[in-house]
Design goal:
mainly alpha; 3 domains; about 425 residues; single chain
Length: about 425
């Protein structure tokens, strides 16, 4: 039995996981009734992930999910937290930015149903299935409700997404909130109101609780708003018109800048202003400890001097998104990582090829700025492509959402009728 070192699954532990699976299936069926166009790909994504869940817990251990990985620590943390009831869970709260935050949330389920690795994986399955639905919401906001569902199929069958949908890591748990944050950004680009700012803030703050770099995504988003408001404020001065919102944002931005430069404001993965000046950025030390094993990035990409910050972060971000490269392959597992990287390379190539058309979409520049910033931050914090494969799943949904629907025309099946041809043409 998989994870037998933590508990032997009894009937209660299995039924608790089955209960979550049934809830997930009900969610799929409900969404399918509301939108029949996405029912089949959403159901396929659920069934594929369910199959992997059963394989992982009852047949053999999937990659990156054995007891020798971080997974064992997460399972143990959830079990310990729920061991002595409510007070034990409260006392084991890991903080607002911890890789164990998802395990702490799962401990509440353990308190109700008992500790079960199968339950943990079932909750990951539920979260991942919700993420597939939220991806379609994001794609519909960008390209319209009638866009074809080929992108949804691509998300449904992506191997790395399917793998981390059933493993007790935080990836599957953080995906929905990342997507909520990006959905808020896209809505804000069309309707610049406080409601959409709140949606974005909520998504990135909760995502930051699972992994701190997404607090920085919120900082970047606020910076975008501040830049626009500053521009509005100075235009108002030029035409002798006073904009209250522009003035208030100018004050807030100035205070934030002073706090960062002269105070002790701490930015995740970056640190304080003094740490940057003194060449003591957190990401440097995180990446240095990650430069181990056969999957490590080249040693020359490690940051060792202040001048390296002007060019190496971009190189490391590139490695994070697209490695391993052919010259990095040394084992069969590296070949699998290389195939995963090829998908990212191809998708980004298609986006680049259509950049002149994408630039006309209101949300595209903002999403691109966020992706570029996060890729650099994660590139500084990750030192090997084994870990990079897992971390870049956080961006796969967003990257695919930027693919224009007409990019899938060549791989689309031939319509069965003239009416269907007219419908599909209109949807593009």
């Amino acid at each position: 039995m998989i994870y037998a070192g933590f508990q032997h699954l009894g009937l209660t532990q299995i039924l608790s996981g089955v209960f979550v699976i049934v809830v997930t299936l009900i969610f799929v069926l409900t969404v399918g009734c509301m939108n029949r166009r996405i029912f089949v790909p959403l159901l396929f994504a659920f069934c594929l992930k369910l199959m992997l869940l059963i394989v992982n817990y009852f047949v053999f251990t999937l990659p990156d999910s054995g007891k020798g990985s971080d997974v064992g620590g997460f399972l143990s943390f959830s079990t310990r937290s729920a061991l002595n009831g409510f007070s034990s869970i409260i006392g084991n709260y890991p903080g607002f930015s911890s890789s164990e935050f998802h395990a702490w949330l799962v401990s509440w389920w353990y308190l109700l149903f008992g500790d079960s690795a199968f339950l943990f994986g079932s909750l990951a399955l539920l979260s991942a299935t919700i993420s597939v639905f939220l991806f379609w919401q994001l794609y519909s906001i960008i390209w319209g409700r009638n866009a074809n569902t080929a992108s949804l199929w691509l998300v449904a069958i992506m191997p790395s997404i399917s793998l981390y949908s059933v493993i007790p890591r935080y990836e599957a748990f953080i995906w929905p909130f990342i997507l909520i944050g990006i959905i808020g950004v896209c809505k804000w680009s069309n309707q610049k109101n406080l409601k959409n700012v709140f949606i974005t803030t909520f998504g990135f703050v909760v995502a930051g609780m699972f992994h701190s770099p997404f607090y920085l995504a919120l900082v970047v988003f606020i910076g975008i708003i501040a830049a626009q408001q500053l521009r509005k404020f100075f235009i108002g001065i030029k035409i002798k018109k006073f904009y209250v919102s522009g003035f208030l944002f100018s004050i807030v931005f100035a205070l934030f800048f002073v706090w960062f430069v002269f105070g002790s404001l701490h930015i995740p993965k970056i640190g304080t202003f003094d740490s940057i000046i003194n060449n003591n950025v957190e990401g440097k030390y995180i990446s240095a400890t990650a430069f181990r094993g056969g999957a490590s990035y080249p040693a020359w990409t490690n940051i060792s001097a202040f001048s390296d910050y002007f060019w190496k972060p971009i190189i490391r971000g590139f490695y994070f998104m697209f490695s391993p490269f052919p010259w990095d392959i040394r084992s069969v597992s590296h070949v699998i990582g290389f195939l995963d990287a090829l998908i990212y390379v191809y998708v980004c190539y298609v986006i680049w090829s259509n950049r002149t058309k994408l630039i006309s979409i209101s949300c595209f520049p903002y999403v691109l700025i966020l992706l570029f910033t996060l890729a650099i931050i994660y590139g500084m914090g990750v030192g090997n492509f084994g870990t990079g494969i897992r971390h870049r799943t956080k961006f796969f949904f967003i990257i695919i959402a930027l693919l224009p629907p007409y990019c899938f025309q060549k791989i689309r099946l031939r319509p069965k009728s003239q009416a269907h041809r007219i419908y599909m043409t209109a949807s593009v």
